[in-house]
Amino acid sequence: MLGHSVIGSRFYKTTASIQGFPTENIYELDGGTINPGAKGNSEEYKLQSFFGRVNYGYDDRYLFEFNAGYNGSENFMKGKRFGFFPSVSVGWRITNEEFMKGTQDWLNNLKLRASYGQVGNDIYKINGTKQRFLYEQKWSQIGNDYRYGETWQSGIYESQYPNYGVTWERAHKYNLGLEFGLWNGLLSGNLDLFYEKRNDILTQYLTRPQWVGVAMAAANLGKTKNSGYEIELKHANHIGKDFNYTVGLTYSHAKNEILMMDEPDLKTDYRKREGHPINQYFGLVCDGFITQADIDGGKLPVSKLGENVGVGDLKYRDMNGDGLIDERDETFIGYSDIPENTYALSLGANYKNWGFSVMFQGVNHVSRYYDAEAMFAFVNGGKVKEHHLDRWNPSKSEAENLANAKYPRLHYDSYGNHNQRGNSFF
User: Fold this and answer.
1) Cβ burial, residue 360 (10 Å; 0-12/13-18/19+)
2) Cβ distance 72 to 82 under 8 Å?
3) What's the pTM value of the predicted model, to 2 decimals?
4) Which residues, in sequence order, are bridge partners of residue 45?
5) pLDDT tens by residue, 367-392
6) Does an H or E element contain 350, and which?
7) For a Cys-Cys bond, which of 11, 132, 390, 400 suits 396, CB 3.0-4.6 Å?
8) 3-state class (DSSP) for residue 359
9) DSSP strand pairing (324-325 vs 302-303)
10) What is the dihedral of CA 124, 130, 133, 135, to 10 degrees?
11) Nearest 5 degrees, angle CA 79-CA 85-CA 86?
């Protein structure tokens, strides 16, 4: 099979506004009297692709498939726009071999498969917004930029320095799988091993000094890897001729790692994100609560994160040993927000024209961080919540607080800058 596709779209946006309506019941623009305004813009997207597929099977035993795509993106300059992305997969139906004839009464399916493929990505986002035309120099307007006489004037500044060499992000995917079926469907399952290495990831520069004075367009700077396995088991049976049921179990384990992201060579190891999972949380390591003994001992690091730090506040680890607690002591805490392990149990049943199904799912080796109103007290002058009742209470003894307190002492001023920040406690 051979094919060619061109995907194009164009969006138009026009807005008009006015204020000063005499009543809320008037919805026409002519009803307003002050601050009229109108603006409009349009965006156009295009993607072109040539693709093909070849399938081959021999004697229902040996299977082969080859796919290829030659894709072009407008986000890259001429000479860098097209990328070739092939994939190949093979399969072997072992149960159809001559030497397996004696197993057909209990082994209904046994298939081994393997695949390799490349996948491209041309999308780079900042805060959820696509960044387009990374190879172009971009200019923006800024109001009240300079004075001409007694009047402030608008100015133009360079908002993006172009990257002429940027091109496709490329993922290399490997998979090895085994399928089996036993006793006419009473038990079936899959076992998959996978590995992915992603190269030339579109990401921002981290080693360009700020005195460059302009934002740099993204570059193909990142590398990551992801590996793991997935197990799926299914039992299906019937009772009588009208009642059928199924039970399924799945478990998957996947672990990723950042291999490269343009971090400075001199950055301390405990602050480097390379070698750690994607989206692993970053913050201060908490070693319990500050006690009077910590203060009397004279070795408690000085917090630069808030004032009036004392007994009952969180005690942070001084990672660099400089006697201070600040942003330089932040390191990796907890797990990533991407689960390493996922498991599920599914149940289903059918009786005549009635059906029922339910699934239970869980994850572990994953972290969630709670902050702001979800965890902190007095946010933006707000109130406390029920979980703050278990705070460190100055009216109780230190021994009682150490045994029972589940939250540091409360601060109203500056909403507790020392305690209420990214840390392993929350």
Assistant:
1) exposed
2) yes
3) 0.79
4) 9
5) 888 777 777 777 777 777 788 888 88
6) strand 341-351
7) 400
8) strand
9) parallel
10) -30
11) 140
